[in-house]
Write a structure and sequence with these properties.
Blueprint (H helix, E strand, L loop, with lengths): L7 H14 L18 E8 L13 E2 L14 E3 L5 E4 L7 E6 L10 E3 L4 E2 L15 E5 L8 E8 L14 E11 L15 E2 L5 E2 L4 E2 L6 E2 L2 E9 L8 E8 L18 E7 L17 E4 L19 E6 L9 E9 L1
Parallel strand pairs: 2-12, 10-19
Antiparallel strand pairs: 1-9, 3-8, 4-7, 4-9, 5-6, 5-8, 10-20, 11-14, 12-13, 15-18, 15-20, 16-17, 16-19
């Protein structure tokens, strides 16, 4: 007689069947075909900066945006992707605004703003919804945000899908152009041009005829640095430029929040001398870059004080005229 011995695989299957029969385990459903789904889907988009360098609009320029829409219309995009949570990857260069669809209903009237590294789980079960998931969403740049750049999101499509992210990436939040004026040409009040809160009520849209309105929803909690570019092809001798600040959020508010107009503060920077270089073509005109850190970058002057709005920065030439009339391009960076 030939004796047959059960293989280890068969013994394991028998043991599993026995546990199910004794109610010690639950049966598991396994697909015989490879699964096409995934616990998460990744999407990336690149957004144009909403603030920009312009000879006319200078430091208050912003692309046109409708104030009654929480997502900038030119960036609005709907996704028919269901899920349980959305995360904005920490390497993203901009915050985003997200509106969820739940239970086949229309897009919610409220938008949630995600900063890089943040995950939102809109849990809860509205009437008629069983599992607490969303059926789709729309996303784009938040209304009033001045920056842009790459944004990468992860859509978590199962209840237990998750992400463990750390850190908060540095983002560029304001691109602007400022004119250097002679001491005698300083205005009575500095232009409203140095925000840290967005939407920014003093931004000028399009050709500058419409002032943006809206309650601030995003704050730069930790400004990190600024990079500036002097738009002069050459500088014969070192020249000093003064940043003149009026009504900063850090120093010039009283106990009731009212602005203190005096004293006005300043920080100085000396541009080194340099010769014109380059030949014909696109590389013929070359402007110097410099990076600044320190107290100057932490100041916020949103100019949100009414009648009239106050709070801003003016560049002044203290070199005797070498810099008067020139423009400086500045990009400001920070953490949200």
């Amino acid at each position: 007689m030939t004796q047959k011995f059960a293989s280890a695989k068969h013994m394991a299957q028998f043991d599993e069947f026995s546990q199910i029969a004794r109610a010690e385990a639950s049966p598991q459903t396994r697909s015989i075909m490879p699964e096409t789904g995934s616990p998460a889907q990744q999407m990336s988009r690149f957004f144009v900066n909403q603030s920009f360098f312009d000879d006319v609009l200078r430091e208050r320029a912003i692309l046109p945006q409708r104030p009654n829409e929480p997502i900038v219309a030119s960036t609005f995009k709907e996704e028919q992707v269901p899920g349980y949570a959305i995360g904005l990857h920490p390497a993203s260069e901009t915050p985003i605004a997200v509106q969820f669809k739940v239970g086949g209903q229309k897009t919610s009237s409220q938008a949630l703003i995600l900063r890089p590294g943040q995950i939102v789980r809109p849990h809860g079960q509205p009437k008629g919804v069983v599992d607490g998931s969303f059926s789709g969403f729309a996303w784009g740049l938040p209304f009033g945000w001045l920056g842009g750049g790459l944004a990468t999101i992860l859509v978590y499509q199962t209840p237990d899908a998750d992400g463990a992210w750390i850190g908060n990436s540095e983002v560029a939040f304001h691109h602007s152009r400022y004119q250097i004026v002679a001491p005698g040409a300083l205005p009575a009040n500095a232009p409203t041009n140095w925000p840290l809160h967005f939407p920014w009520t003093q931004a000028l849209q399009g050709a500058g005829s419409i002032i943006q309105t809206g309650k601030a929803a995003i704050a730069i909690t930790s400004p990190t640095r600024l990079i500036m570019r002097l738009r002069l092809p050459s500088l014969a001798a070192p020249a000093t430029m003064r940043f003149v600040f009026q009504v900063t959020s850090d120093f010039d508010r009283d106990g009731a929040g009212a602005p203190i107009l005096t004293p006005v503060g300043f920080v100085e920077f000396t541009w080194p001398s340099y010769a014109a270089s380059g030949g014909a073509g696109n590389l013929g005109t070359q402007f110097p870059y410099f990076e600044l850190a320190g107290p100057i970058i932490r100041f916020g002057t949103d100019g949100d004080t009414p009648n009239p709005p106050l709070g801003g920065m003016q560049l002044m030439d203290t070199s005797g005229g070498a810099l008067t009339g020139a423009f400086v391009d500045i990009t400001r960076f920070g953490h949200i």
